[in-house]
Amino acid sequence: MKRYEKNPIITSDMVKPSNPGYEVKGVFNPGAAVLGDEVILLLRVAETCVQKEGFVAVPVIRIEKGRVNAEVLEFSLSDPEVSLQDTRGISYKGTDYLSTLSHIRLARSVDGYNFEIEGEPFLFPDAPEEVFGVEDPRVTFLEGFYYINYTVVSPDGWATALARTRDFKAVEKMGIIFCPENKDVSIFPGKVNNRYHALHRPDNSIFGKPSIWYAESEDLLHWGGHRCLVRPKGDRWEDEKIGGGPPCVETPEGWLQIYHGKAEDGGYSLFGLLLDLNDPCRILKRSKEPILRPEADYEKKGFYGNCVFSNGLVEKDDGTLLIYYGASDCMTCVAETSVDEVLKML
Amino acid sequence: MKRYEKNPIITSDMVKPSNPGYEVKGVFNPGAAVLGDEVILLLRVAETCVQKEGFVAVPVIRIEKGRVNAEVLEFSLSDPEVSLQDTRGISYKGTDYLSTLSHIRLARSVDGYNFEIEGEPFLFPDAPEEVFGVEDPRVTFLEGFYYINYTVVSPDGWATALARTRDFKAVEKMGIIFCPENKDVSIFPGKVNNRYHALHRPDNSIFGKPSIWYAESEDLLHWGGHRCLVRPKGDRWEDEKIGGGPPCVETPEGWLQIYHGKAEDGGYSLFGLLLDLNDPCRILKRSKEPILRPEADYEKKGFYGNCVFSNGLVEKDDGTLLIYYGASDCMTCVAETSVDEVLKML
User: Fold this and answer.
1) Which domains does chain A have, with CATH numbers?
2) What is the pLDDT of residues A17-74, one digit of tens each?
3) Which of A271, A299, A310, B111 would disulfide-bridge A294, Cβ 3.0–4.6 Å?
4) Nearest Cβ partner of B205 from A88, A205, A219?
């Protein structure tokens, strides 16, 4: 796995805010797809508000009579009703407001390294289940459509929704496919036994640790056949939780999944998993050590340092894999490898 | 809502343990159905182990080569590796064991008040997702089958599984239909717009409070169209969380759902909700005050006092409703009312 020497390839200063009162704090965790000769990235853009002294400003999505308004809400720090919470935001008169809001932005490249970033959002929060943001898209190409699953966040919790596009211009939102609390959904890029398949990551609170689950569907909208597939190893690399990454790559040896794990020190690394082509619930191989872990300076320092996280990759015709990943929850990077090389690491 | 004067109708001493080393601690939260002239209850039976001084014994389900063994595991309290946890159990060398294990037992009655309880379990934990117990069944009659959804608990978390039977003799388990963490699933006793519908209750950890969600399905196994339908009111009765109860009753005015709410003092009460017959996502009425709250002595004192919880009811031909409910998480009770009477309380 070779990091691109000019990493990071996309940083906050390269992204135009979606609103004059907003400020881009991070651009990371991109979904990836190939459209004709182009590599498309769907970037998670996290924005906060421009702040002034004595006040705290938060981004708010208000949906009224079908109209979506992205606003700046300002509270005086001397107002006794304002209580600052952790990095997640503030509470005012019993209502929570988040300090950052994410949307999804499109970027295009001919070489896979140099991207042109669109000036406007591609997917913006505009539904009740999205008012705290849309995050971490994954793109799976199936039967002429690019299906995009992404995390939705709202006062009702976080869940996974689906959208689809044929051309990355028009896009159709299709609603929640995995109800709270569920993210890190990775839809397989092909049917097995006439069904769609996905990895998903429900949360655990009392028993167990967040693990990778399996589900199947006949229409991509209704999911069932849930079972727990891969649990955190419990070693220093996979201590707290694991979750699915980009859609699997179909290889002659099996479905290759690149997943992430959270270590005992809080760091996020990438791992490999090989699943049976005809029975994706059958685990053939799993990496013992990370295939990519935070080592570069930009992976160690940032909004959430010590973190590499991938939800997008592109396979070139020659078998090269371009693994796009978020570094430190604020920048977009890429690493180059190949299917063979990853399989050797398992 | 009139409590039966001989409540509780079923108590632990009336139930034969499923294993010579086990002891029945509670029999509560029954699902209910009508089969011919009989009322069937599916009782949640919670068992613990017979204890002896200086040791702690826990019930354990072990599945080996397809064989299910219900065992008693005994640990010496002087073993430094044993650490007692809260009422949930013990931890030994990093593994959690629960102090109680639930299974589902069948009981039959001709009058709805006096029940004969079977000597053997009807649904017993025998799958990896069930090894910490099966709980709180709900029965929905659809197209010749009694569908039973129930909570499964395992080291991977708690979720909702489905089973079905035609006669309450042979029963077929069909796997998890709502992945962790999800319980209080209430499947509608009829299709709307050619689809099955359900209320479900995903958990929330960071944002929001556990609420009643809606989902739909074409086959009862794969669910989608998730949306948050009813949130806790935040008053003294519905402060912490709410969740679905027995399957809705179809009335000329709408689908009548009896749900539960957890109050600020930790108590559980019952409430009513009326949903549009043709659009179950449309809320027509909702009770402001509980329709049943812990008042009787047996509802105030027990394993978890101050608790009434219902997941089973029976509608008689004359419109009488027999609401079966768990009192204090240890006894089974019944209250009598009618559709009209409940509707008047909304």
Assistant:
1) 2-344 (2.115.10.20)
2) 999 999 999 999 999 999 999 999 999 999 999 998 999 999 999 999 889 999 999 9
3) A299
4) A205
